[in-house]
Amino acid sequence: MTWLMRGLFIGVGSVSVVLGVIGMVLPLLPTTPFLLLAAYCFLKSSDRLYNKLIHSKGIGPYIQNYRSGKGIPVKTKIIALLVLWTSASFSILFFVPLFIVQALLFLIVGIVTYYILSLKTYRPNVKSSKNSSNKSPTVSSS
């Protein structure tokens, strides 16, 4: 790969990470496509940046679970939908004066909600001890 292509991939990947992180705060900016684009760009151009992205504390597990087909955790879905509907409702009620724009924003939020709910839900394995189900509660006598 030429240095120009490598630089282009690193540049696009870096911008995508910034937009993805901003998308975590601004719900109408899509987070997942930007983070996946960043992962692809870094995979093509820089093993160091790819590994740093994949192993980062906040973003890494999210990308790994999504890319491996495991899905998105319930907590992430709930937070995303709460932030999405809160900010959209606030915008519709207080900042957008035109009804047609309010309706369009409501439609977009509905579509994004459907998309989020249709994504596979990641459920990590719950560890439990073998004997915990066989134990009966103890009663102390006084």
From TrEMBL:
Keywords: Membrane, Transmembrane, Transmembrane helix. The chain crosses the membrane at residues 7-29, 92-117. InterPro entries: DUF454. Pfam families: DUF454. PANTHER family: INNER MEMBRANE PROTEIN YBAN (PTHR35813:SF1). This is YbaN family protein.
